[in-house]
Each structure stands twice: as C-alpha cells, then as structure tokens.
Design a protein that fits this description.
single chain, 364 residues, mainly alpha, two-stranded antiparallel sheet, 18 helices, 67% helix
Length: 364
C-alpha cells in the first residue's frame, strides 16, 4: 500500500472553522461542502505530483488555487511554500507566496503560522516584522505545533527574567499534556519527550536549509543533538515520511528522506522500516532507489512481524524494482487478499499488479 502518500493525504482532513459552528448551520450540507474542499485539494496535489505535461501541471495548480480559496489551508500553505522556493514547477514569486501565506494563516494552518512567523521574524525573503512574526509563532504554539513551542520556549528563556522563565516552564509542561479519561488532561512524560524531540529535529532542518530562516549550521547541529536516542527513529520516520517522502507534498525531497531514514536505521520501528523500503522501491529518483536493500529490509521485518497486507504490498514493489516481476505478482496477489474490494486501496494495489504483469516497476 502507498503508505507515504496515505500519510500525506491524512493532513488534508480539515477541521470545521469555529465561525461555522452556530445554531443555524446545516451540518450535513456543510460537512458535504467541506468534504468537497478536501477532495479537490487531494485531486489537485495528485495532478501536480503526477503531471505528465505542462497542461496537466497547470490544471493541477489551478485546482489547488481553487481549493485554497474555498477554505483548504493545506492548499493555501502548499502554494505559499511552492511560490517561496519554486517547488514542483512553480516559479519563485514572493508576492504570490506572501499572499498565500496571508490566506493560510487566516485559515489557521499551524505549519503556515510557524513558517510565515519565522520568515517575518528574521526578515528572510519578506520584509521583517518581528512583532507580528512572534504573534504568529505563538499562535502556532497554541495550536500544538511542536517546533513553534520549542522556539517559543527558547525565546522566553533568552529573555531570562522570572516571568519569562516561568512561562517557558509552563510551555514545557504543556507539551506533555494529553486528554485522558473523562476528557481530563493528564501528564504524559513520554509524550513531552517525543514532542520536544520532534520540535528540535524540525528546527534543526529549518536552520540547515536556509528556507524559513537564514542558515545557521551550528544551531542546526545543536538542535539535532537534543534529540534523544530513544526517540530518534520515531522522529526520523515522521520527518522523512510526512515532510520529505510524499509526492503529494510540494516540499518533497526524496534524497533528504533517504538520509534521514539511513541515519536512524538502527532505531526505526516496523512502520519506519516499511516507509523506508517503500521509498527505496518506488521513488522516481534513481539516486534514491535501491530494490535490493528494500527487499532485505522487508524480508528481515517479516522474520519478526506478521505479514500485514500493506507490508506485503511494499515487498512486492521492492521485488519489482529488482526486476523479479514473477515474485512481485505473487506477493501482490497475497496483498490483495487482505484489502477490501471496492476500496481505493484495493484498486491501487490492482494497478500495481497490472504494472508488474507488464514488466514495469511502480513509481510514486
């Protein structure tokens, strides 16, 4: 199963804006309209990712723009970021980028709030507005963005007075709170550790890539060193699979994803191993693909784990990448027995089997 794409598509399930929650709302009609916005954004991202010519790419961009204007903060943020760096065939256009950032922060996209906040705080690419930048970062923190919270904690600690230090401690405490029984918040130290680690790891990337903030490699290394060994695999899997390995994300960078997976290979859980193998088997980038290693990873996984249909699907793709299409078809037929007929997952798996029958490996 296309695990990486599925992870990216989950991000398109949008919340209902508070302004819609009034007594006169027709919830059934509103839910239908919201579903249409979500589905149009997914279709647009798919068209852009798999565009075969300039015409289909332009059509995908148009659909993405329509989804953004209809309320998809994911679509708005993707366009803002795309025009910021020229990703996936979009021209670098800072005026357009800023307009879409303004739209996405009004729609309260946590990622956009942090990205735009950092850009304004540092005056990087856009005119500096440190006061507004800090307000946007604070709002991203309020909405739960781990990197925004870590950045806010460090900002408060740098001020250093008693009130700021108390506020920083409060934010650290907040990162370990989750809903427990009876809708009461309870403290979860493991969650705090994982959230802090993810925040540090993402900030390490931000200060390494010169996109949202001016590059500072010493600071990037310092953040990376703050990720505990115990959660390194979880963090690497999140960044690699969600941020860099999905072709439905305009920020896709398969080489960066591969490096993240390789650096944390010894600490990856079964999901991370599956995601890494899928990347190695299906990436359109020949510098990333390695069918032999993908087969080895999945065969080793099956010595200790049950044969989940999604993982068998990955092993089939890995064998196809090595050129063993007979084995790939055999495994794909096995995977199909575990997928529900009539679903998108089943139909995509059938498409892959047909690909293998024609002697073609699968490309994400």
């Amino acid at each position: 199963m296309k695990t990486l794409a599925k992870l990216a598509l989950l991000a398109l399930v949008l919340p209902i804006p508070p302004s819609q929650a009034d007594a006169d709302t027709d919830y059934a009609a509103f839910a239908h309209d919201w579903s249409e916005v979500r589905d149009s954004a997914m279709r647009a991202l798919g068209m852009i990712a798999y565009a075969r010519d300039e015409s289909s790419h332009a059509e995908g961009i148009r659909y993405l723009e329509e989804a953004a204007m209809r309320g998809s903060y994911v679509a708005a943020h993707q366009l803002a970021f795309g025009y910021l760096v020229g990703a996936h065939g979009l021209p670098v256009d800072l005026d357009r980028s800023q307009r879409y950032f303004e739209l996405s922060v009004r729609q309260e996209s946590p990622d956009a709030l942090l990205d735009y906040g950092l850009l304004l705080l540092y005056g990087h690419r856009f005119e500096a507005d440190s006061e507004r930048g800090r307000k946007l970062i604070r709002r991203a923190a309020d909405l739960g963005h781990p990197s925004a919270r870590v950045f806010l904690i460090e900002d408060l600690e740098a001020v250093g007075d008693d009130l700021s230090l108390a506020m920083a401690d409060a934010w650290r405490w907040r990162m370990g709170m989750r809903l427990g029984r009876h809708d009461l918040f309870v403290e979860d130290r493991e969650q705090r550790s994982a959230s802090l680690a993810l925040g540090y790891a993402m900030l390490a990337d931000y200060f390494a890539d010169n996109v949202r903030v001016p590059a500072d490699q010493d600071r990037a290394r310092s953040y990376a060193s703050m990720v505990p060994e115990a959660v390194r695999g979880m963090v690497a899997n999140h960044l690699a699979a969600w941020r860099y390995a999905s072709n439905f994300d305009l920020r896709a960078d398969h080489r960066r994803a591969k490096t993240l997976f390789e650096d944390a290979l010894d600490t990856l859980n079964s999901e991370g191993i599956n995601n890494f193998a899928w990347l190695l088997a299906t990436s359109p980038d020949a510098e990333v693909r390695n069918g032999e290693i993908a087969v080895e990873l999945m065969e080793d996984l099956f010595t200790t784990e049950a044969r989940e249909p999604a993982w068998v699907d990955t092993l089939a793709a890995a064998y196809a990448e090595t050129g063993d299409f007979a084995r790939a078809i055999e495994l794909q037929n096995e995977a199909l027995t575990g997928f529900e007929r009539g679903t998108e997952t089943y139909e995509e798996a059938v498409d892959r089997r047909d690909n293998y029958a024609e002697g073609r490996a699968w490309r994400e």
